[in-house]
Amino acid sequence: MSRKIIAILRGIQPDEAEGICAALIEAGIDRIEVPLNSPEPLDSIKRMADAFGQDALIGAGTVLSPADVVNVADAGGKMIVSPDTNPEVIVTSKAAGLASYPGVLTPTECFAALRAGADGLKIFPSFLMGTEGLKAISAVLPPETETYAVGGVGPENFAEWISAGAVGFGIGSGIYKPGFSVADVAIRAADVVAAYDDVS
Question: Which residues cross the membrane (predicted)?
Fold first, then answer.
């Protein structure tokens, strides 16, 4: 089963990419994002996509322009995650055959993203919306809409977010920070997976 958990590897170095990616997949996380404000992000994405593209959905975060989407696709990425709702980014992603997860915080952004073809919505930063806000918005979203809580979420509050309507999560510093070893990531990823499995 592919868990609806996106590991956000902000700050990862290319020479860490394969080892960290392998540890995440082994732990049970197969959706992996390298933010484009990381060092040489396209190199890291290419290394992971070449090694694990058949086993994982590898892609980029902090994607702000259609040109970024093209670069990620050229590197072998299959997923585009953004902090904002930019219809041009969503449309370009879908035209290239990539999964699109734009950042949203308001009903207007949610519906704009869905109209443009988004595969799921990244509630960001989720602590600003809160679980009560997500409950209210979920009541008017199409029932099949997938919402991912990102920012201020972790194993300790997975249950609250799922009960509010979230289907998944983006986890950054709870899984990876610059300087973490492969073993560090493996331990944290296993904890996240166990907590997710307990409540999903």
Answer: none
